[in-house]
Amino acid sequence: MQDNSLQPSGPTPMPSSSVQMPVPPTPSGQQLPPPETSQPPRGGGWRSALSTIAILLIAPLCAILLTAFVFQSYQVDGPSMESTLQNNDRLLVWKLPRTWSRITRHAYVPHRGDIIIFNESQLGSFGSSQTKQLIKRVIALPGEKVSIVDGTYVVYNKEHPEGFKPDDQYAHGKPMGTTEPESGQTTWTLGDGEIFVSGDNRQDSLDSRAFGPVGLNDVIGKLSWRILPLNTATKF
Questions:
Q1: Closest CA to 110 of 206, 211, 219
Q2: What burial class does residue 34 get, using C-beta atoms within 10 Å of its C-beta: 0-12 exposed, 13-18 middle, 19+ buried?
Q3: Is the Cβ–Cβ distance between 201 and 83 less than 8 Å?
Q4: Which residue of 75, 78, 145, 215 has the fewest CB atoms within a 10 Å radius of its CB?
């Protein structure tokens, strides 16, 4: 067998017997011990495998917890929030305030004008027999009275006993079309745990005008971002 190491050039040296060189003495006269050969740590492969398995198990769990309690992605289905939101818009909904309210046992009350996701089970009279998650805008808050007057909402509370029009003060989006009653009812008085919601597309929205006020316990979260399409990405 040949190796590929390089040999110095010049006359071939005379063969000689093998001689072991003595280890030089230390200043104290003792010989230095031979150098130790490092050994790879035992069990390193098992530790690496266990770390990988732990990461693979923890990552999906973290994703599930974040989706359940912090934020979640939704896609708009239908035209009821036009022109603020469009069909197939991809949204990011902030759920942490609702989660915190459950921990502290204090009701989560969204702000007027917030666009929220909520569970609605009173849809049996409208061609649906199951609970659905809907997206609408908050019009009136607990304890207030809301009426439809001349094609618009008017809200009455302690600060505004004569009433005011909430459609005039939204930070994002404006209603489209006139506001007409859908069930013949034109005035609602909300309980302490109720809010009144409506779609921005007033002539094509199934909302509190039809199925009544929404309970605070049914609120899932507040719209935080529109993330798709990218050219209309918006923070709410």
A1: 219
A2: exposed
A3: yes
A4: 75
Residue bearing the bigger pLDDT, 43 or 99: 99
How many angstroms separate the CA atoms of 218 and 118, rounded?
5
The residues, ordered by sequence, that sit 6+ positions from 232 with a Cβ below 8 Å of its Cβ are 86, 89, 226
Q: What is the 3-state secondary structure (H, E, C) of 29-41?
A: CCECCCCCCCCCC
Hunting for tokens 């973290």 — which residue is that? 62
How far apart are the two ends of the chain, measured CA to CA in Å?
Answer: 76
Q: What is the pLDDT of residue 124?
A: 76
Torsion of CA 72, 78, 79, 84, to 10 degrees: 10
Percentages (nearest 5) of helix, strand, coil residues in the chain: 20, 25, 50
Say if residues 215 and 110 touch (Cβ distance below 8 Å): no
Q: Is the dihedral of CA 61, 65, 67, 68 positive or negative?
A: positive
Per-residue confidence (pLDDT) for residue 27, from 0 to 100: 53
Nearest to 145 by CA among 87, 189, 86: 189
Q: What is the residue type of 103?
A: I
Task: Count other Cβ atoms within 10 Å, centred on residue 231.
Answer: 5
Is residue 5 very low, low, confident or very high in pLDDT (cuts 50, 70, 90)? very low
Beta-carbon contacts of residue 91 (< 8 Å; ≥ 6 apart): 73, 74, 75, 76, 85, 135, 223, 224, 225, 226, 227
Q: What is the pTM of this model?
A: 0.76
